[in-house]
Amino acid sequence: MDDDQHGREVSRPVGSWVLSSVQGRILEGVAAGFSSGRLSRELHLSSKTIDYHVRVMSDKLQAPNRVSLVSRAFVLQILRTDSWPPRIACETLD
C-alpha cells in the first residue's frame, strides 16, 4: 500500500468506487489466503472490521465469497498477476 509524501493513506479508484488503502491491504491479505484473525493482528484492526471491509468489497465487485472476490479482483486487474504475495496493481493508484 502507498502513502503520499505526508504519510496519509492513498485511495485507489476502481470503476466508480474508491478502494481505500486499508481495503487494498485487506484484499492483498485475502488473496494470499489470510484469515480475518491473521489480518486483524497484522493490520491492528478488529476481525469485525476486516469482515466488514471484505463484505463491502464483495458487494461492490458482486462476489458472493472470498474466492470470488479475489477472482474478480484479478479479472478487473485490481490485483497484479505477476507477483506473490498478491499486490494491488499500479494502474489503480491515484
Structure explained in plain terms:
- By secondary structure, the protein is mainly alpha-helical.
- Helix content is 46%, strand content 6%.
- Mean pLDDT is 84; it is low at 1-10.
- It has helices spanning 21-31, 36-43, 47-60, 66-75; strands at 12-14, 17-19.
- The chain has a two-stranded antiparallel ribbon with strand order 1-2.
- The longest helix is centred in the middle third of the chain and has 14 residues, at 47-60.
- The radius of gyration is 12 Å and the shape is globular.
- Helix 1 (21-31) packs across helix 3 (47-60) and helix 2 (36-43) packs across helix 3 (47-60).
Structural class: mainly alpha
Q: What overall form do the CA principal axes indicate?
A: globular
Count of individual beta strands:
2
Major sheet details:
2 strands, antiparallel
Strand content: 5-15%
Order of helices and strands: EEHHHH
The proportion of residues forming helix, as a percent range, comes to: 40-55%
What is the spatial order of strands in the main beta sheet? 1-2
- Number of DSSP helical runs: 4
N-to-C terminal Cα separation, in Å? 12 Å
Radius of gyration: 12 Å
Rounded average pLDDT? 84
Low-confidence stretches: 1-10
